[in-house]
Design goal:
4-stranded antiparallel beta sheet, 34% strand, 4 helices, alpha+beta, 93 residues
Amino acid sequence: MLRHVVAWSMAAESRGELDEVLAELRALPEAIEEIEALSAGPLLNESDLDAVLCVDVADGESLERYRSHPAHQPVLERLRRVAERLVVADYAI
């Protein structure tokens, strides 16, 4: 099992879009069967990051299918557009 973690800070001009971005991320399991578990939300601790996404998949091949899935692409593009900073980490659990 692998966990894909993305933490990000919103660009100042995009802060109002955080709830919409989180809703789009939370809808991904309905479209992408490789997702075994997904959680996403705003960070509650003091940090220069605003939110985090955690996605669990079976293995490296599943992670690649998730990353390249057509349903993932528009959400990823939007996140890249509205984020000032993105930090990505993948690890075995």
